[in-house]
Structure formats: structure tokens, C-alpha cells
Specification:
This protein has one domain. The protein contains 3 helices and 5 strands. It has a 5-stranded antiparallel β-sheet with strand order 3-2-1-4-5. Strand 1 and strand 2 form a beta hairpin. Helix 1 packs across helix 3. The radius of gyration is 15 Å and the shape is globular.
Length: 104
């Protein structure tokens, strides 16, 4: 799983993906696909791809279109998932989401 995969997933699902870095900071991938480290004050001495490879848990934070920092209506405010589950979501692409109508 690469950072680009998570960026695509965040855009597709309109969610923010949070994961902790080894130095105690947090990386947030926005619903626009932008990876940010809010606590970063200078040139980083780490590589986000390497930090992502070391991350084991992730927090998904759904957002409502047009309203920042608001969960989507009816959605849980935060969902914590493991690396394997997130990798499956990222690898699945648009077809991994539930179909709107299933043929019988």
C-alpha cells in the first residue's frame, strides 16, 4: 500500500485518513488527497512513504461535502481500522464499494 493509494481512497470515499508517525506526529490525508503533517514546523527529516509502511492503525474520518470537519449524515464520526483492512479498501477501487442494486 502506497501513499498514492491512500490519497485516491480519501478522495473516492470523501474521508480523512489519519495515521501516527514514529516521531509522535500525525499525518492526515484530506478528502482532497493532500497529505499533511499539521505539527510540522520545519523541513521534515522523515519520508512519508516509510512512515506509512511502519503504521499499523488508521483512523477514518468521513466528511460532508461543503462542510469541513463535519461527519457525513448518518456516518460514525471516526472509524479505527488496521493496515490489512485499509489495504483491502485501497486495492479494491470503486468496485469494492457496495453496489446500489444487486441483480437476482
Amino acid at each position: 500500500m502506497k501513499l498514492a493509494d491512500l490519497r485516491k481512497l480519501a478522495i473516492r470515499r470523501q474521508t480523512r485518513i489519519h495515521f501516527s508517525l514514529r516521531n509522535g506526529m500525525e499525518c492526515v490525508i484530506s478528502e482532497h488527497g493532500v497529505a499533511q503533517v499539521p505539527a510540522l514546523k520545519a523541513v521534515p527529516d522523515f519520508n512519508l512513504e516509510e512512515e506509512l509502511a511502519a503504521a499499523s492503525s488508521f483512523l477514518l474520518d468521513p466528511v460532508m461535502a461543503g462542510k469541513k470537519h463535519q461527519p457525513a449524515k448518518g456516518a460514525a464520526p471516526h472509524t479505527s481500522i488496521g493496515r490489512e483492512e485499509l489495504a483491502a479498501m485501497a486495492a479494491g477501487g470503486p468496485a469494492a464499494e457496495a453496489p446500489a442494486h444487486e441483480e437476482e
